[in-house]
Amino acid sequence: MMNNHHHQCGHEECAHNHHRHQEDEELEHSVYDEEMNDEESIEDDDTSKVVKATAPVKPSTLELKSELVSREPLPLQQRPIACIVVGMAGSGKTTLMQRINAYIYEKQHPSYIINLDPAVLDVPYGANIDIRDTVNYKEVMKQYNLGPNGGILTSLNLFATRFDQVIDLIDRKSRTGFDAGMLMTSSLSSSSEKKKNLEYVFIDTPGQIEIFTWSASGQIISEGLASSFPTCIIYVIDTSRNTNPITFMSNMLYACSILYKTRLPFLIVFNKIDVVRHEFVKEWMKDYEAFQDALSKDESYSSSLAHSMSLVLDEFYENIDTVGVSAMTGEGMDEFFKIINEKSKEYEETYYQDLLEQEKLKQTEKLKQQEEDMRRLEQDFKRFNTASKKAPTEDEQLQEFLQNLKMQK
């Protein structure tokens, strides 16, 4: 039964990916020319084999940029929700992205999916933008003499230099919308041709979590998205590997560090609940005594540290949302998307307000600087006028002297 389900799901995803490719082909190729091969790269540039000549300076892209300058920002409620998916290697991020792709197609939620892992061999979902179309990961390692992790990090750095164009593409698609027929099967496409606004943007990050969360390029990408769209962090955890309370505590500490570094709305996703149910984890987060009982079975030196840290993390648990999902069966996906929509409101109430305050401070500083520049300009004009006054000639001096004599008489 499950095999039939996956077989059917695979057909739906293939159809969805085909429609998505047709609908987005012109938009994507304005920046990322997927058909450009290595022989078409710029031969004179040393980095031509590393960064493919995908022509971010094509006329269509330049026109897009000039068009964006004149456009007013969309209301916050009309912007798509950007979800950055992070997690430890093996937590099931890619499988979850495949499930998300199938779900948004089934529910007809117009979405954009971005792959930021340059080392992945195959992406089992339809990615609208793929870092592999822009950066050649193997050539990066070869040219810069790097290892696997260094190659991923450098590839991400190179891609981050063009991420403003990715944001421009998402912004454009947010305004133009999707054809309803592109989201439906052929049997339903004739029933509606209305445009549907872009609702979600999902970003799949590299498997090595620290490469994205603790790198400059990861910060650039996260802050770039958060400054333009409601953004949240989705932290994926392998439930089956967190039955040990020490391992669970380590994962929570890492999640806490990411939360306080990004300051973005945060959602913890306990994946693989078809293997191990996640109720015990939720109990540990809500009931301090239950977690202490689990720790009491471990007499290692690390258990005493976990006892102390569990008290510190109580506040973290109270303000964090969690959901259990199965990327294999699709269980929990309705609740997953429900919480994501709530994260959009949380973004508006917290992070977005901070952005507005920062913008006000920048405007205030800018006005002060303009006033200071005007004051200096006026002083320069006064000095110039004083210096430009001509000295009196000898005849003028003589005439002034005679005039003074007459006045004295």
TrEMBL record:
Uppermost EC category: hydrolase
Record note on quaternary structure: Binds to RNA polymerase II.
UniProt keyword terms in alphabetical order: Coiled coil, Cytoplasm, GTP-binding, Hydrolase, Nucleotide-binding, Nucleus
InterPro entries assigned: AAA+_ATPase (IPR003593), Gpn (IPR004130), Gpn1/Npa3/XAB1 (IPR030230), P-loop_NTPase (IPR027417)
Catalytic activity, EC: 3.6.5.-
This protein's GO CC annotations: cytoplasm; nucleus
Stretches assigned to coiled coil: 353-387
GO terms of molecular function: GTP binding; GTPase activity
Compartments where located: Cytoplasm; Nucleus
AAA+ ATPase domain mapped to chain residues: 79-274
UniProt-recorded name of the protein: GPN-loop GTPase
Family: Belongs to the GPN-loop GTPase family.
Summary of the function given for this chain in its UniProt record: Small GTPase required for proper nuclear import of RNA polymerase II (RNAPII). May act at an RNAP assembly step prior to nuclear import.
Principal place of residence: cytoplasm
Region (Disordered): 1-28
Domain of life: Eukaryota
